[in-house]
Design brief:
- The structure is a single chain.
- By secondary structure, this protein is of the alpha+beta class.
- It is 23% helix and 39% strand.
- It has five helices and 23 strands.
- Strands 4-13-16-15-14-17 form a six-stranded antiparallel beta barrel. A five-stranded antiparallel beta sheet has the order 1-2-20-19-18. A four-stranded antiparallel beta sheet has the order 5-12-10-7, with no helix packed on it.
- The chain is elongated, with a radius of gyration of 39 Å.
- The relative contact order is 0.20.
Length: 355
């Protein structure tokens, strides 16, 4: 009754905050200046990790758009040399992903000729057979008259007979003999465009073979000087980094750009021919910057790139920065960070959500 009209709300809130702090349940919150107060227990829950910024000379890089291609020396295409009908090979028509060896018969191409062409070939074959019959009788008669007929005449008759036999065999084989379609290289079948009985035209692509352990990447550079200054390159994949080895560049522009060739170092990466890639090529030039993983970059409220600086034990500050890529997983911070500052590298995206 003596203190019935007094208000103890502030005292109660103060005792509550002290109790939460004692129990380790103080929540992270955003301060008036935009920085964050994050208690140590919350930092452990968020899995925050930091690194010290070290400003040094870092090689300059350039981003290139490229795509995966088959190594020209480890793959090939099977094309029809003439019009014909497809027939299965000894193991049937090859299927996607099937392993083949160089020289293996994949299918048969039986030539398709019109009725007029077929009749002309048959008439030519009949004419050759009649000429061959006359030549064989002539040689047989000369053999019986050996000694009375000059040897030169006998040899000429035999040569004429052998030539007619070869001509007959060639014309007979061209009428209905199928052509063997063989694998030009060892690898796996990456594309198959035919079925049994299909009629194909000359130069039509039937099968494509790729060696998955020998792939390459082709990129386009709009600065011709890059062809002489690339030291290394890499590309980011969904499940890791694709290491590349620079092979060389062409000396002729294609669509106002210079084509560059890279070879995939490892043959076990999950990439496919035709897959687009963003390539980070390292040049021989250098500039100052602080290396940091790409996971350290976040977006500020205005959409600009920023990082979180661990300014105190439980104090974090958002800092806008400029950066350039170093490789597929690392960036160089060129402004907005001082030497020796702690940069949040893991859990930076979770700090943005603190309100």
């Amino acid at each position: 009754m003596a203190h019935g009209g007094e208000d103890h709300g502030q005292e109660t809130n103060a005792h509550s905050s002290v109790g939460e702090a004692a129990m380790g349940t103080v929540a992270a919150r955003r301060l008036a200046d935009g920085s964050l107060f994050v208690p140590k227990n919350v930092q452990r829950q968020l899995g925050l990790r930091t690194v010290l910024a070290n400003i040094t000379e870092i090689p300059d890089t350039v981003e290139l758009n490229g795509k995966v291609i088959a190594d020209p020396n480890a793959g090939g295409r099977v094309q029809a040399s003439q019009s014909g009908r497809m027939e299965p090979g000894p193991k049937g028509l090859p299927t996607l992903g099937q392993e083949v060896t160089k020289g293996e018969v994949l299918a048969w191409l039986r030539p398709v000729a019109s009725s007029i062409e077929r009749s002309n070939q048959q008439s030519q074959l009949a004419e050759l057979e009649s000429q061959l019959a006359i030549a064989e009788r002539k040689v047989k008669r000369f053999d019986q008259l050996e000694g009375a007929v000059p040897q030169a005449a006998i040899d000429a008759a035999r040569i004429e007979r052998d030539a007619l036999r070869k001509r007959r065999a060639a014309v007979g084989a061209s009428i209905n003999t199928p052509e063997a379609l063989r694998a030009p290289a060892s690898g796996v079948v990456s594309a198959a465009h035919v079925v049994v009985g299909q009629v194909v035209e000359a130069k039509e692509i039937l099968f494509e073979i790729v060696d998955p352990k020998r792939l390459a990447v082709e990129a386009l550079a709009y600065d011709p000087a890059l062809a002489n200054g690339i030291a290394s390159a890499s590309a980011r994949l969904a499940e890791g980094v694709l290491e590349l080895q620079f092979v060389g560049g062409g000396k002729q522009l294609r669509d106002q750009a210079l084509p560059l060739m890279f070879r995939v170092k490892s043959g076990n990466d999950a990439v496919a021919v035709g897959q687009p890639l963003k390539i980070i090529a390292t040049t021989s030039r250098t500039s100052k910057g602080a290396a940091a993983p790409q996971e350290a970059l976040v977006k500020s409220g205005t959409g600009e790139s920023a990082i979180w600086i661990h300014a105190g034990a439980e104090h974090f500050v958002l800092r806008k920065v400029h950066f350039r890529p170093v490789d597929a997983t690392t960036v160089a911070l060129t402004s907005g960070v001082a030497n020796g500052e702690r940069i949040v590298t893991e859990g930076a995206g979770l700090l943005v959500q603190v309100r």
